[in-house]
Amino acid sequence: MSNLLRALRAVLWSFIGLGGRRADAERRTSQVGILTLVGVALVMVLLLIAGLVTLAHLAAGT
After folding, report:
1. Of 10, 16, 39, 56, which sees the most CB atoms within 10 A?
2. Can you list the pairs that 39-42 forms with residues at least 24 positions away whose Cβ atoms lie under 8 Å?
3. Considering the entire predicted model, what is its pTM?
4. DSSP assignment, residue 61?
5. In whole angstroms, what is the distance from residue 31 CA to residue 7 CA?
6. Within 10 A of 10 (CB to CB), how many other CB atoms are there?
7. 3 CB contacts (<8 Å, ≥6 apart)?
8. What angle (nearest 5°) sits at the alpha carbon of residue 20, between those of residues 29 and 48?
9. Cβ atoms 31, 4 nearer than 8 A
10. Residue 51's pLDDT band (boundaries 50, 70, 90)?
11. Is the CA virtual torsion 38, 3, 43, 56 positive or negative?
């Protein structure tokens, strides 16, 4: 599995809070560089915010 996919998997698991045991979470994050994890996390946060803003606009009808 590529580093980007591993980072995406680790970030998604941490977002929903189902990382499992601490040893498993540390093993997932140790296989990926810290900059990759931070970059993927920032992109995911921005996508989440954009999705919520879009949903709010749709719900408000504007």
Report:
1. 10
2. 39/7, 40/4, 40/7, 40/8, 40/11, 41/11
3. 0.73
4. T
5. 9
6. 22
7. 31, 32, 33, 36
8. 65
9. no
10. very high
11. negative
Q: What tokens were used for 11?
A: 């970030």
Tens-place pLDDT, residues 25-38: 677 677 787 888 88
* Structure tokens, 22: 């601490």
Q: How many residues can be counted in the chain?
A: 62
Side-chain half-sphere exposure of 31, counting CA atoms within 13 A: 16
Which tokens sit at 10? 């680790």
